Write the structure tokens for this entry.
Amino acid sequence: MSVVARRPSVCLTCQARQLRLSRRRLTTAPRRGHPETSLAVRPEDDGFLLDSPPHNSRGFYSKKTLRQLRHHGEPVPEDALREVALREAALSFEALFREKDARLRTLRSLSNPWPGVQQGRVRFRGPPRLQRPDDAPISHATFRQNMKLAVGQKAIRSVLRSQLLRCEWPRDVLRVVAVAMLDSQSAMNLMHLYEPIMRALYRCRNNVTDPEVLNTLHAIIMRYRFAKLDVEPQLLHMTLKFAARSRSKAAMQRYLKMIKETGLGMTSNLYRSVIAKFSIGHRGLGEIRNGRWRRSDLREVLLGFKDCLDLPEEDQYHFGTFLVREDWQFLHGWVAVLARCREADAVWNEWLLWKESKAYQQPRRLLVIGEENVKRQTIPMTNKLRGVYWFVEQMVYAGDIKRAWEIMRETEVPLNRLKHRIRMRMLDEPEHADLWNDMMREEMLKKYDFDLARIEQGFGVRWVEGEDGEGRHELCMDQEEALDRLASDRLKWEEENGYPWEENPILSQNERKLHDAEES
């Protein structure tokens, strides 16, 4: 490759700079007697092709020449040996380069893949995924041997985590805990592995009942406290949720007291989650697995345990002591669970306290997702209006419709703004309404039509309109089947899902059928 000489610059400063850059540095290193032999490597479509550098006839030795020299027993020149070694090194480098893609594929398939070269904009890869257990389960003896061989915090936690991710039964979880508690170092590491323990216990729900999971959690926490280890708040919160699922007043009292002693309190998410585990929804889906709470037990959990009534208020630890009334996320679920327990007086007291709050006296508009383009003629939703609707609804569920009408009268909220099922329940006692107008007459006609449709459905008939505004009833099902359905205990005029039982035993829906079966 020819090198074009740079023309000298006219500027004296530039000439001085070029002279300074072109000046050769002095060195004291001795010059090599013989130049190193090199190989020219150029990239092609199929990899690297090796080519020898420009040489003369004196410095090149082919394979045939080397073979003849060895055959006649003559000494092989040093240059020839050096050239052969360099060619073999270049060939091995070419083989590695050709296998680079296969190696990268292997590295990227590992649990901690080899990071690729990020060019340009970094794309979002989605939320992080939880660690998965290995496909092949290992025996408990192998696990104990792995624990003996594990040295260091990282190795011990890795063995414990991988074994916990394989557990699907409470006894497997307890065996892992028992092995870890044999050594103080492994016990300390197990204390921080609350996330694999929680995941293992949630997997156990596929095989055992919630009370059994609660007993397992209780055993783990007691082992921690006996060994004077700290119990992570996440484990306490999980135990409280399973106590609510299991309908256990004693467990709720024990772990509410533990959480109170830690001084951490409850977040709004945890508070609402525990209330949801009470199964107070109007669909009653939580009753299928665990049955219902007994009303007297749930009332103690909410408002105060009988054996703690003599304690001062700051030492109480029932569920109501964790309430933050200024936060609507707390108050929303608290009022709902009181209403399901038919505690109308407690709901009314909460209404009186809420009227003194900032949300009631200084209402602010709510930004409801999906309703940004609603017409301005409609009444804007504020935090005050949201609270009024909720208190009216829960007062109806508590069974005190008179006070629900009183709240409507104080706030001047129109009846047609309420939910349909709430309007129908309030119109069961229309004598408490203080204002009768065209809107009330229209709502009463809707109530009459609603009740008549339910009666027709119960008898298995339907109304067919005729000419001149007249009509007739027609059968839509077999009358014997309709009468049998009316006589069944399953038919309820009003829904009762989500309400605690009075003094009945706590049974799931499937067990209740067997419990209530009559002898032939």
Strands lie at 40-44, 47-51, 461-465, 471-475.
